[in-house]
Amino acid sequence: MRRMKIAIRAVAVVLVVIGVLAAILRIVYLDDLAVRSDPVRNTSLRRLSIVDPHAGERLAQMRRFDGSYAVSPKMTLLHVAPGALLLVLMLMQFSSRIRRRFPSFHRWSGRVTVIAGLAITIAALFFAIGRPFAGVLEAIAAFLFGGLFVVSLLLGFLAARRRDFAVHREWMIRASSVAFGISSVRLTMSVLDPLMTMAGFSAPAVFDASLWSGWIVMLLVAELWIRATSVRGGSALRARPVVRHAPDLSAAVIGHEQRAIGQHE
Questions:
Q1: Which pLDDT band, with edges at 50, 70 and 90, does 254 fall under?
Q2: Model's pTM, two decimal places?
Q3: What does the DSSP assignment read for 100-160?
Q4: 12 pLDDT exceeds 60?
Q5: Backbone phi, psi, residue 178, to 5°
Q6: What is the percent of the chain with per-residue pLDDT over 70, rounded to a whole number?
Q7: Is residue 232 part of a domain?
Q8: What's the confidence (pLDDT) of residue 46?
Q9: Phi and psi at residue 138, in whole multiples of 5°?
Q10: Which tens digits make up the pLDDT trace of 197-249?
Q11: Alpha-carbon distance values, 51 to 43, 47, 73, 152, 211 (Å)
């Protein structure tokens, strides 16, 4: 179990780094990040001897993808800047050392996490539903997983308010899995892109498949982790101290006196 915890923490750190780096790059290259990064993808495909059947329309597709962010710079910043902050704070929320040593910071950073989460969800729905790159499936994924993210955040916050920390922990793990899923989508895309390109799929189809698979995998891992480390019932969070009753000395003293009286008589 200890090795599993270390592995999950390491993966979470990697996902946070990926997410923060992606946010910084989008802020710096607001209107052409996908166009700038696409040559790296094309070079990788050539090394794998993979021919993209949609290479002729690829540049136009990447420009269309970047265009959604370029025409709405304020919504883009609302999406990526709080998103980077959210990932860092969520990672810190699960640090038992921070919770013990800095409980006030844990509480206030949790409130900031909820506010940032609501902000980025609004922006994400604006892009995925109002300006979808991949069409209906992208919009459905954003609405479904975005809704789950908000519900998990709010239920986790309310559980903490009533000091039900076992339930709070479970809902925050679910919310974090959706947030970290944004980074895992980039990892699944790096695997699915060459495979689906060989099969003749275009960029929007790869994007859809990466969205769904990245989020589903993260949610499955989260649920397995919750089941494996559930702290409900007999947990340390709710456990009451075991009171060991001292032996009844008064009864022993009375019995001794009665035996003494009997012997005297």
A1: very low
A2: 0.82
A3: HH-HHHHHHHHHHHHHHHHHHHHHHHIIIIIS-SS-HHHHHHHHHHHHHHHHHHHHHHHHH
A4: yes
A5: -70, -45
A6: 87
A7: yes
A8: 95
A9: -65, -45
A10: 999 999 999 999 999 999 999 999 999 999 988 866 444 444 334 344 444 43
A11: 11, 10, 34, 42, 23
Q: Give pLDDT, residue 4.
A: 83
Q: Is residue 73 part of a domain?
A: yes
Tens digit of pLDDT for each residue in 106-142? Answer: 999 999 999 999 999 999 999 988 889 998 999 999 9
| Integer Cα distance of 130 and 207 in angstroms | 17
| Tokens found for residue 184 | 């895992």
Region of 263 (left: φ > 0; alpha: ψ -120 to 50; beta: rest) is alpha
Q: How far lies 150's CA from each of 80, 114, 250, in Å?
A: 17, 8, 60
Confidence of residue 6 (pLDDT cuts 50, 70, 90): confident
Token pair 């709070």 in the structure block, residue: 168
Query: Which residue range is the domain that position 162 belongs to?
Result: 2-238
Q: Report pLDDT for 157.
A: 95
Angle between helices 33-47 and 165-198 (to 10 degrees): 60
Structure tokens at 103: 């409980």
Examine residue 259 and state whether it is found in any structural domain, yes or no. Answer: no
Number of separate domains in the chain: 1
Copy the structure tokens of residue 41. Answer: 């993808």
* Cα separation, 31 vs 180, whole angstroms: 24
Q: Is residue 170 part of a domain?
A: yes
- Token pair of 89 as six digits: 């704070």
